[in-house]
Specification:
Layout (H helix, E strand, L loop, with lengths): L2 H25 L3 H10 L5 H23 L8 E6 L4 E5 H13 L4 E11 L2 E10 L5 H20 L3 E11 L8
Parallel strand pairs: 4-5
Antiparallel strand pairs: 1-2, 3-4
């Protein structure tokens, strides 16, 4: 969801909250709300009310579309080389799959969730892990950082500026695959 849709969601949420709050107060018989409601829904203001409702309906449809449309994650790429013939690019998802394969090979790693971000000098990789209880995290984390950096460099030619390892959980139970 982009910044426009997030702003629209904020305004839509505020408008619907105010509407339903006023509706609740009107049901409870609070006189100032009943008077304001009668003034707003007066027959001479019908067009304004219909226009406001139409804007809310269009905004709601836009938010539904924004929530179900597929993301653009596959469009993000890291540039390897640009020469007179053309460009060579690697999708960030491909680098994430490579990192998953490298890190999953370590004993004691239950789950791997990598994230790759491009920077001007190459890429930064964050690896979130779920490990087994007996794992020596400092030693294994350093080895993971070293192997991820070397493998990504060898396979793609992209410079890895930083590999961050975050252990999300230490558990003996293998996570369920969905």
């Amino acid at each position: 969801m982009g910044p426009f849709d997030r702003g629209l969601l904020l305004l839509y949420s505020l408008a619907t909250s105010v509407f339903w709050g006023a509706f609740l107060l009107a049901l409870l018989g609070w006189r100032p709300v009943l008077d304001a409601t009668a003034a707003v829904f007066a027959p001479e203001r019908r067009e304004i009310v219909f226009a406001g409702l139409a804007v809310l309906i269009v905004a709601g449809l836009r938010l539904i579309y924004a929530s179900v449309k597929p993301g653009r994650r596959h469009d993000k790429v890291a540039l390897i080389e640009e020469n007179s013939i053309g460009q060579v690019q690697v999708a960030l998802g491909a680098i994430e799959n490579l990192v998953t394969r490298v890190v999953s090979a370590f004993p004691g790693i239950r789950e791997v969730r990598p994230r790759v971000v491009t920077v001007p000098e190459g890429v930064v990789i964050q690896v979130r892990l779920v490990t087994t209880p007996g794992l020596k995290i400092p030693e294994v984390s350093q080895e993971i950082q070293r192997q991820v950096k070397e493998t990504v460099r060898e396979v793609t030619g992209i410079a890895v500026q930083n590999v961050r390892v975050l252990v999300d959980n230490i558990t003996a139970v293998k996570p369920r695959v969905e």
